[in-house]
Amino acid sequence: MTTELRVLRGAEFDAWYTAVELGFGGVPEAPEEAALWRALAGLDRSIGVWDGAEAVGTTGAFALRITVPGGAPVPAAGVTMVSVRPTHRRRGVLRQMMRRQLDDLRAWGEPLAVLTASEPDIYGRFGYGIATHSLSVRIDTTRVRVSAPEGTDEVRLRLSKPDEAREACEAVYARRVAARPGMLARQPGWDAVPLLDPADGREGASPLQCVLAEEGGRTVGYARYAVRPLWAESGPGGTVLLRDVEALTPAAYAALWRYLTEIDLTSLVTAHNRPVDDPLLHLVSDIRRCEPRVKDSLHVRLVDVGSALAARTYRSPVDVVLDVTDDFCPWNAGRWRLTGDVKGASCERTEDAADLALSVRELGSAYLGGVSLAALAGAGRVRELREGALEEAAAAFGGDVAPWLPHGF
């Protein structure tokens, strides 16, 4: 097999994107979806492996900004559209693309790479660790009530067309970004992603709908959803399909959820990507009838250990020497002294004795504060070399809220 890896050229996009679709089941995406991803992708950040005129391997890297502990957004490469043609698997195509991509990201000075994985077991060997999880719920609204904290009844709810409400929703979202690690600061064009609603992908549901929550005449929350009707002999039992919901106050959040669970002619609300510590869990009357489930979400890879660890803050003072192994990106291997607190941090090479030993994969898992270094140590993936170092580092890396990725890419 003779193949060539190269950065994507403009005339090659259609063939490259067709290969992406083939890799994910062969069903072509709606034209509006393909057009949006093309506009966001950036040809100079997209890689193809070609066998003659055929694209047999694909990957891209969106230029994202992700919130890290401390509230600051940090540049991150959003690894996406990774596929290998079935005829070319187990021939090193994926490894070749991951090698080139991480080399490029290092040259560009981007400290982090992040991705969501269709198959979670693939990316650990390239140094990615699972850093966030997502909660899904299936709420039986015939049996579950949403409590109303003080002020809920004063919240005004107003239906709006999703595109007409875009600016108001984005203003609410922007104010939420700094509050939770893992959230993506919207880059130009990305406000269209939550509004994608191709007609042939609705599977019997309504077009996307939007409800705004207002307090004192200003928008303080929103929910975007669709309704899939169901008519049965026993009566109507449609499903509310929640796309996203955000609010700036507890009253507005409760008002939105109460609205969603009380929509006429429905008996279910489903949501497939909520934070694992979502306040919803404390608003519902019966958590068991919400059928909560948790799965992996964002995988994080430290491209440059020093700059990545220095880019975030730490919940408590920390001064530890980390002995890092990184077989795929050897420039990260060795000992690093991490010193930091809630105000900032530094992370520099050192010859001092190590306090903890771990791989870059564990650092990726712990980076956003959602996976405890102590838990990883319990699994044998972090070794304590100085007594007390694990407790110190685990406390420092932790956070007050669970990190969360609000939407895929």
Structure, briefly:
This protein has 409 residues and is an alpha+beta fold.
Would you write up a description of this structure?
This protein is an alpha+beta fold and 409 residues long. 22% of the residues lie in helices and 33% in strands. The chain is built from nine helices and 21 strands. It has helices at residues 13-23, 31-41, 93-108, 166-177, 250-261, 305-310, 360-366, 373-378, 389-397, and strands spanning 4-7, 46-51, 54-67, 73-84, 112-116, 129-130, 133-140, 156-160, 209-215, 218-228, 231-232, 235-236, 238-247, 266-274, 293-296, 298-302, 318-325, 334-341, 344-349, 356-359, 382-384. A seven-stranded mixed beta sheet has the order 1-2-3-4-5-16-6. A seven-stranded mixed beta sheet has the order 8-9-10-13-14-7-15, with helices on both faces. The longest helix is centred in the N-terminal third of the chain and has 16 residues, at 93-108. The protein is globular, with a radius of gyration of 23 Å. The mean pLDDT is 96.
What are the salient characteristics of this protein?
22% helix; 7-stranded mixed sheet; 9 helices; globular; 409 residues; single chain; alpha+beta
Mean pLDDT: 96
Structural class: alpha+beta
Radius of gyration: 23 Å
| pLDDT < 50 stretches | none
Distance between the termini: 31 Å
N-to-C order of helices and strands: EHHEEEHEEEEHEEEEEHEEEHEEEEHHEH
Shape: globular
> What proportion of the residues is helical, as a percent range?
10-25%
Order of strands across the widest beta sheet?
Answer: 1-2-3-4-5-16-6
Task: Determine the strand fraction and express it as a percent band.
Answer: 25-35%
User: Count the helices. How many?
Assistant: 9
DSSP summary, beta strand count: 21
